[in-house]
Amino acid sequence: MTTWFTSDLHFGHARLLELSAGRGAAFASVEEMNETLVDNWNSVVGGEDVVWVLGDFDMHGKDASLALVSRLNGTKVLVSGNHDACWAGVRDGWKKRSSYLEAGFAAVMDFAVTKLPPLGPEASATRVLLSHFPYAGDSHDEDRYEQFRLRDEGIPLLHGHVHEAFRERRTAKGTWGINVGVDHWDYRPVSGETLALHLDELRRTAG
């Protein structure tokens, strides 16, 4: 079993092709984007794997987008983001969680803690936090949704939200955050092993 991470798929979000230079160049239509994201997901994720989706699976829980959940391999866990209808920042968002569960998510939550696999037989697994939002930074000029961001207590953070703005960033306290959004990972989920290696490299090269 492999554990994967991804974020910001934005299934069904046609306007994103106008807002994002990368998406606009990669896909001619929202239908092409949807199908490519499904195909890319299933090309790496197996039926016994687990995938953490760190928010913005789609735009506001539309039925057509949620219908795609059942086409995606693996056990899927959603850490909701600001564009998900079940997000805590959406009025009565908690009432929408059932629609995501019925669509095929095994669980829906606001944040989570997990571990990345050890890099060798003598190494320890690395604890990481999971949230849609980074500790700091945004795809806009100002940091939004600060009340929903986790406090930096020195634990590495896997997140989404910022799209192409940055793939990794170190906080003032020296804590690394890695953006697992599809825009930075060839429009497909990234494995926990890859992220463990990437985090190790960031720590070593940063000094």
TrEMBL record:
One of its GO terms (molecular function) is hydrolase activity. It comes from the Bacteria. Residues 1-164 form the Calcineurin-like phosphoesterase domain. It holds the Pfam family Metallophos. SUPFAM superfamilies: Metallo-dependent phosphatases. This is Calcineurin-like phosphoesterase family protein. It comes from Nocardioides panzhihuensis.
